[in-house]
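Good morning,

Attaching, inline, the backbone tokens for the sequence recovery test we're adding to the shared suite. The designed sequence is right after.
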């Protein structure tokens, strides 16, 4: 698709140029990259920079913050504090840790969520691109079972690693 984009924008695709783009985009699927180039053909006036393609795939920083906020709220509402969870998003891990842990976040009243929106944006912005292994947040069931000697009764944590497009629908609601 990069070649097609080169044709549209009258840009020769050299091997070094392709290598640079690949090094930036390699963490994404071929389908995501192809879709980004397709969007660039429709939206850009010039051959897209790697950062523009990343924005087509991941969304702008503001999009990502809004999506993460909704993702965390929905996880608290639909999963709740009783289940253990693993978020693949390092920004959300930072928020959960800063706000006292999974159980504490799940029990925040609506007014508190509204009060903390600016803090969420600020914390998420500085931590959303940190590279680290996903962390498990222990839910109430697992905690109590371990306390009572029933560690073997634990269930697998719920993994929350949805892609941006799945949450864009939530932003529009």
């Amino acid at each position: 698709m990069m070649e097609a984009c080169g044709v549209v924008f009258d840009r020769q695709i050299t091997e070094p140029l392709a290598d640079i783009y690949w090094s930036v985009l390699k963490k994404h699927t071929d389908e995501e990259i192809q879709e980004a180039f397709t969007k660039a053909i429709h939206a850009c006036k010039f051959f897209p920079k790697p950062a523009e393609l990343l924005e087509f795939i991941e969304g702008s920083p503001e999009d990502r913050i809004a999506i993460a906020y909704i993702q965390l709220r929905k996880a608290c509402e639909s999963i709740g504090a009783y289940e253990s969870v693993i978020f693949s998003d390092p920004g959300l891990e930072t928020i959960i840790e800063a706000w006292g842990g999974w159980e504490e976040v799940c029990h925040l009243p609506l007014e508190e969520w509204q009060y903390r929106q600016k803090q969420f944006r600020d914390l998420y912005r500085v931590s959303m691109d940190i590279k680290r292994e996903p962390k498990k947040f222990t839910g109430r069931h697992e905690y109590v079972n371990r306390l009572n000697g029933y560690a073997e009764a634990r269930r697998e944590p719920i993994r929350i690693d949805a892609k941006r497009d799945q949450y864009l629908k939530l932003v529009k609601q």
